[in-house]
Amino acid sequence: MTVFMRKTAASGEAKVAGERSLLLGIGISSVGIGMYIPFSLVFFHHVTGLSLTVVGLVMTVTGLAGLAFMPLAGTAVDRFGAKRVNLVLYGIRALGFALYPFAGSLPAFAAVSLVTALADRSFGVVQQSLIGEVAQGSARDRLEASTRALQNAGMGAGALLVSGVLALWGTGGFTYTAWGNSLAFALAGLLVGRVRAVRVGRPTAGAVGPAGAAAAGSVGYRTVLRDRPFLGLTAANFLTALGYSALSVLFPLSLSTWSAAPDALTGAAFTVNTALCAGIGVLIAGRVRRSGARRTRSAALGALLFAAAFVGQIVLGTLRPGRTATLVALLAIVVVYTLGELVHSPSGGALSVSAAPDTVRGRYLATYQLSYSLAGALAPSLFTALLAVDGRLPWTLLAVAALGAALALLRLERHLPAEAVHAEPPVVRDTTGRPVPVTAAA
């Protein structure tokens, strides 16, 4: 198949055919997500009429089931293609939110919630795989950065939108919000359907020709488990992913129990983080990309910035300055933390997509995304247990984990495929001075 890409005169970077539709769809679906995520328990309580306890229990059980479904989603991507699976998941989410207002009984809510949770949990795997199918080289890094910026902007807009709906219609507005979510996912699916998906990438390690690639795909996750560098990359990402949970889980807990700072600072921290991600995310990622930095090294730099922010929390928790100084220091720490996120996320995402063989990319990325899911599941209990001993302990753990991730990324650099490490193929010269592209890691 032909790779449908073009170059812009201004940047010289390849543009994917249908890229605007893809990004617009991601932005619209993120608005839908922002309309219910911040109020999830209350949202489903009012939409279904069930008690908060029942809603919470069902959400926990279906969420865990969604994690177990992720490997199957990876297999589906490899068999049917990421674009098709992406459209199916958008359709399931649209149908699920359209049905929520009618799911007033426990069995009905559990059934709709289960199916929707399976689609929600698997969506990250499929979206990453789709980026791998439609883009190559630095275009992947750009799409990763644009996607993250749009997700932050969309979720912020969705939260503001639902606040306005509730102000106008009260809690009854949650029903309209559910239908608004359904419409958002349906429209996003229509837009993503315009993207021209192609399969481009490196063959499976050890495979020879089409028959070898097909055989590699047939062995399922054994291919992934034999790829030690990729497993190392996944383990390094788990260490960094613990840091991604800090802002939403540890930061509010630390403020209220250890720093004795006003809870309003949590909202301020989220606002600063979201505004920076949406406002300068693409700019920061573009500067990193144009610098020619290897993805492993820019991802490691992001991890180091995380570590610096966590060390700042340790210092702040030890010195405990006055209220004004605490406020300034916390906001500075959030800025450093956010810069780490903006540097690490596009490079880390493109690194994982490019390190995955084309024929089994879905399985590879399902494995990689589990590092985020596992970190998110462990973070609440881990952070609270350490916080009960000493308020600096969880930040110390996160700082050590981030430093370990940075070191691991640097050590993995020579073991990963060259096309994964470099956004653009590196070039060496032979004895005559002619350029010779490097196609494999040393």
In short:
The protein is mainly alpha-helical. 76% of the residues lie in helices and 3% in strands.
Structure commentary:
This protein is mainly α. Helices cover 76% and strands 3% of the residues. The protein has 17 helices and 4 strands. It has helices at 19-34, 40-48, 52-80, 82-99, 106-134, 138-169, 173-192, 209-218, 222-226, 228-244, 246-259, 264-290, 295-319, 323-355, 361-389, 393-412, 418-421; strands at residues 5-7, 14-16, 427-429, 435-437. The strands form 2 sheets. It has a two-stranded antiparallel sheet with strand order 1-2. A two-stranded antiparallel sheet has the order 3-4. Helix 2 packs across helix 3 (52-80), helix 5 (106-134) crosses helix 14 (323-355) and helix 10 runs antiparallel to helix 16. The longest helix is centred in the C-terminal third of the chain and has 33 residues, at 323-355. It starts with a strand and ends in a 5-residue tail after the last strand. The relative contact order is 0.13. Mean pLDDT is 83; it is low at 1-12 and 199-218.
Number of helices: 17
Report mean pLDDT, rounded to a whole number.
83
Q: First CA to last CA: what distance?
A: 30 Å
- Sketch the topology as an H/E string, one letter per element: EEHHHHHHHHHHHHHHHHHEE
Let me know the largest β-sheet: 2 strands, antiparallel
Radius of gyration: 22 Å
Q: Which runs of at least 5 residues are low in confidence (pLDDT < 50)? A: 1-12, 199-218
- Strand content is under 5%
Q: Which strand order spans the largest sheet, edge to edge or round the barrel?
A: 1-2
DSSP helix fraction: over 70%
Shape: globular
Q: Strand tally, please?
A: 4
Q: Please identify the structural class as seen in this structure.
A: mainly alpha
